[in-house]
Give the backbone structure.
Amino acid sequence: MSDRKPVIISEEQLEEQRQYIQQIRLMPDAPKSYHVVTYGCQMNAHDSEILAGMLRDMGMEEAADRESADFVLFNTCCVRDNAERRALGNVTWLKEVRKKNPRLMIGVCGCMIQQPGMAEKILKQYRFVDLAFGTANLYRLPELMLKALESEHAVVEVEEQNTIAEGLPVQRLRHDAAYITIMYGCDNYCTYCIVPYVRGRERSREMSAIVAEAEALRDSGVKEIMLLGQNVNSYGRGLSEPCSFAELLQMVEKIDGIERIRFMTSHPKDLSDDLIEAMKHSEKICRHLHLPLQSGSDRILSAMNRHYTSETYLELARKLRREMPDLSLTTDIIVGFPGETEEDFQQTLDVVRKVRYDSAFTFIYSKRSGTAAARMEDQVPDEVVHDRFDRLLKEVQKIGREETSRFEGQTLPVLVERVNREDDSLMTGRTSQNTVVHFPGDCSLIGQIVDVRLDSCKGFYYIGTMTGGNHAAG
């Protein structure tokens, strides 16, 4: 893939967008407040942070909810059908809100809009939408916003996804932890997945840009970063200076002040021994690995184009457990892929029982137009799929509760995230293994890493007691 270079958005193009921002700030009728609604994965969440950063620079304040905002922007997901239907349903609901607030502007962006034909559908069926753009147009929000403000018609634009834009403003969701996107797109073309079609082919950011962003986050007080990509294990292909994902992790680990490093998502076929070694010997890389299985049937894995077998996956899981006994392993599993039999499903259950995941995201197969799986025959009947889904969920939850409880009685460092939503005498944080812990404390602890004794496991979370002062990694 090294011959396919991404297009880096130039400083001149970014300056042009900054000029549009200034024009909007001077417009008396421009929206004064915004609200971004996000669907989907962490990459979408980080995209929303960038969108919010640009809207803030346009002079808008963040509104508490959709009803009170002058501009509502839906950042959509289309990985599964229900996410798309939910987004469109909420967009339609805003049509009624606009009857009370005629100045309300409505925008729709992200993966859903990048799908072939979706832009046209928005123009025809959702005439009340003012602005729609795809994943590749994100950096052009100021320009498109200005066009929408000056036009009586909807502004809809979708471009080819082969760009990387550096230096965009960001309105971070948290002050102590932050996302860094290290790569965009995907080259795997799993037969059920629409991501390569809406996010484009794989393209990695230069290591120097990622390290500089991590250093800037450190300077702003961030203690934990999460490196994001559709398949972080293949990071570095096509870069001017070759760099593997393991090497990138080691470079980020050298940054003083960054105390925790997480990443999502790893493809089993690309998880190298170098990455395992980097994790094993690191005091900063969190002991949590999300390793999607999708199916335990070799026949289904082949039909999914996953490029591994159940046995190679199990061997990888055994190696990870052997090298890092305190590792938390989580996964994704799809039930009801076309042609899945009861035998295939039992093979999935067998892998689940052998690996013993701390938790698993279980999904019913969602037929996505344009993917190879959507054209496959032998789609599994709904009642069969739902029965299997229920049985799988019961199994992963049982095992997950048992695995989570293994830390009971231990004292572990916890990054304090927030005041508990149900009891304001408690604080909520996470261990390196991504386990949620609630413990007595006050809001002065937010953003700190403290030692907490895990007193009582309550299924998928702990009640604990803070035992000492701050804990600093590395």
User: Anything to note?
Assistant: The first strand starts at residue 7 and ends at 8. The mean pLDDT is 95. The radius of gyration is 23 Å.
